[in-house]
Structure formats: C-alpha cells, structure tokens
Amino acid sequence: MAVEQTLTIIKPDGVARGLMGRVLEALETEGMKIVGMKMLQLTKRGAEGFYQVHRNKPFFDSLTSYMSSGLVVVAVLEGEGIIERLRRLMGATDPQKATPGTLRHRYGLSIQENVIHGSDSPETARWEIAYFFNQTEIHSRPLNSG
Ligand code: UDP
Ligand code: MG
Fold first, then answer.
1. How many CA atoms lie within 13 A of 48 on its CB side?
2. For residue 56, is pLDDT > 70?
3. Residue nearest (by alpha carbon) to ligand 1 atom 18
C-alpha cells in the first residue's frame, strides 16, 4: 500500500469540549504520523470554500456557520493507506450510526457536530491539504527516519 497524506480537522465542538488531546492520542495510538498541524478559526467564507462540494446541500449554511463558530485544529497525517484508515477510525458521519469505538461514536454529538473531519479520497486529500498548508508547513520525512 502506498504512503499517503490526508487532512484531518478537529472540529469546533471537539476543541470547545476539550477533546483535542484525546483525539490526537487516538490518532497517534493508531500509528498515524502528524506531519503538520495548526490551530485556527475559519471565517464563514473560509468554511464555505472548504466545503464547496456541499454547496447545494440543505445543511450547507448550518455546516459552514458551525465550522466557523470556534477554533479548529487542522493537521496533515501521513502513512500507508492513511486516508482509509482515518475514515475507519472516525466512523460514520452520524455518530448514532457509527461503530462503537470510533471517534464519532465515542465523542460525536450529532450528524453535524461530529468531532472530526477526514479527507475521503487521494484527490480530495491533496486539495484539502493545500487549502490549509503550504509545503514548508508539512514536515514529511522519508519512511523510518523518524
Ligand atoms: N453534515 C451535516 N448534516 C448532514 C450531513 C453532513 O451537518 O446531513 C455535516 C457533518 O459535519 C459532516 C459534514 O457535513 O461531517 C460533511 O458531510 P459529509 O457527507 O462529507 O460527511 P463526512 O465525510 O464528514 O463523513
Ligand atoms: Mg466528506
């Protein structure tokens, strides 16, 4: 399996409820390498840009208001099959439908306030990483070099 990068976001409900540490611990426990990370607050416009794929969905306005309502942590994760592995660790979008043990099942409040984002494909991951990070902010290293 190829080494990939993916984008994750600890969403405003996660940061506000003091779940940053627990989410990051879960990622690291799974062997997911954090190669870039920052804390920021999106503007409404910034959230609309990030979620433009959902612009025609009924939840778009509510989603982008929520995503710009508080601090988030955005991070680049690197590893073999990391895109799929992160999605599995996150669980289903709706915490009530998520498998026990997944982050959304453990910590999610609602289908909107579901703690964590993860890119859903290699193309999306490249686009989403570039939305938040330039190359100097990603500290990727050859495999096994620590
Ligand atoms: N969302 C929502 N209502 C819905 C579906 C999604 O508020 O009915 C929000 C939720 O925060 C979700 C995000 O929109 O994580 C993006 O939706 P997507 O279908 O891409 O889910 P994800 O890829 O995050 O599981
Ligand atoms: Mg998605």
1. 7
2. yes
3. 93
